[in-house]
Amino acid sequence: MAALAAAVVALAALAVAVLAYRRGGARPSARLYHMNNFGPGDAKEFLIATTVTNGALGAVQVVTCEFEVQGVRGRHMLGGQGRRGPELPFRLEGHQSATWTVPAADVAELLRVYDKNPARIRAVLALGTGRTVKGGWFRFDLDKWAAGVIPAPRGGGSKQAAAPAKAKG
User: Would the pLDDT of 62 be above 90?
Assistant: First the structure.
């Protein structure tokens, strides 16, 4: 009876070890989105941000952060001096995230070079393991983002109806 109980405990321990091992590897995912930098004392500019999240326990090293333009061959490094975020290469620990941003004007310049408007772009991150992580596609419109401000809606000002006047009587 004791031998049977020991075998059950050993199998349970093996199952826990296998689950921990499967969960222990790195599982990075990337997301591309826009944000503004309109805080007090900051230059008013739009930024394109890439957030990488490691959804598992193992650490992963992010080597490069590039952008891919749909319909244009190759990937293009953006930012240079304008890129903000952790220094690359960057070690991303388990259950952590890191964000890199580039000015929207840098992305607009890339799209002007390739005469793409509007264009879909996505972040592509190279990992130290040789794997790449690709984010979802983001629609970038030069008319909206290149100037650094969101244009006012066409057709004039506000469409609010005037409140009816009350008669005194």
Answer: yes
For the residues of 44-90, what is the DSSP string, one character each? --EEEEEEEEE-SSS-EEEEEEEEEETTSSSEEE--GGG-BSSPSSE
The second-level CATH assignment, the architecture, of 23-145 is Sandwich (2.60)
Token pair for residue 120?
């879909």
Cα separation, 10 vs 83, whole angstroms: 52
Backbone angles phi, psi at 8, to 5 degrees: -65, -45
* 37 secondary structure, DSSP code: -
DSSP state of 154: S
Q: Are 136 and 29 within 8 A, CB to CB?
A: no
CA distance 14 to 22: 12
Cβ atoms 62, 127 nearer than 8 A: yes
Q: Is 159 helix (H, G, I), strand (E, B) or coil?
A: coil
Per residue in 1-31, pLDDT (tens digit) is 889 999 999 999 988 887 776 666 778 888 8
- Ordered by start, the domain boundaries in the chain are 23-145
